[in-house]
Amino acid sequence: MTKINRQKIYKHMSYTIKELSETLNISEKTALRWIDNGLKIIPGGKNPILISGSDLKEFLINKDSKKKLKLKRSEYYCLSCKGPRRAKQGSIKKLKNKKNGLCHVCGSKISRIFKPYQKDYKIPPSPA
Ligand SMILES: [Zn+2]
After folding, report:
1. Within a domain: 30
2. Cα–ligand 1 centroid distance for 90 (angstroms)
3. Fewer CB atoms < 10 Å away: N or C end of the chain?
4. Are residues 60 and 82 in the same domain?
5. How much distance in Å is there from the Cα of 69 to the middle of ligand 1?
6. How far, in Å, CA of 4 to CA of 19, rounded?
7. Containing domain of residue 36, as a range?
8. Residue 121 to residue 109: CA distance in whole angstroms
9. Secondary structure (3-state) at 126
10. Cα 40 to middle of ligand 1, angstroms
11. Model confidence, pTM
C-alpha cells in the first residue's frame, strides 16, 4: 500500500473526491470507503461531495493510530480505556475462539478473538 502523505493536505482547503484521490494518490474508491469509515463530509450539497482538509487530516491521524495498535499476546483492547490492557488475574475465560476477561485498570469486560489455528503442527519424529 502506498503511504499517504498528510503534509499534502491543507487544513483550510476543501476537497472533492477527485481532488482527494489526485492529491493523495489514492483511488476514488478508497476515498469513498473512507467516508463509509467515518470521514466527515461538509454538510450541504452532496454533489460534489466536499471534504474539509482539517477533517481529512484528523481522519488520517486516527486511521494511522488505529493501525499502529498491536496487541501483545496477553493484551486485550479495552473499549472503556480505549487502549490495550491486560486482563485481571483469574478473570480470563476461554471460549472456543475467544477469550473474555476483565480489564485490570477499569474492570470493564474485554474480549479477544483468536484466529483458529491453521493446522495442528506436529514435530516430525526424529529418526531413531
Ligand atoms: Zn479498561
Report:
1. yes
2. 16
3. C
4. no
5. 15
6. 14
7. 6-68
8. 32
9. coil
10. 28
11. 0.52
43 and 28 in a common domain:
yes
Same domain, 64 and 23: yes
pLDDT in tens, the chain (128 residues): 567 888 999 999 999 999 999 999 999 999 999 999 899 999 876 678 999 999 999 999 888 776 666 788 889 989 899 888 999 999 999 888 889 999 999 999 998 887 665 555 566 666 66
Are 62 and 83 in the same domain? Answer: no
- Cell readout for 114 is 483468536
Q: How far is the CA of 60 from the centre of ligand 1 (A)?
A: 25
Q: Are residues 80 and 47 in the same domain?
A: no
Same domain, 62 and 10: yes
Ligand 1 centroid–CA 109 distance in Å is 8
- Cα–ligand 1 centroid distance for 58 (angstroms): 24
| Residue 38 sits in the same domain as residue 90 | no
Q: How far apart are the first and last CA of the chain?
A: 49
Residue 19, CA distances (Å) to 28, 49, 56, 69 in order: 9, 11, 12, 30
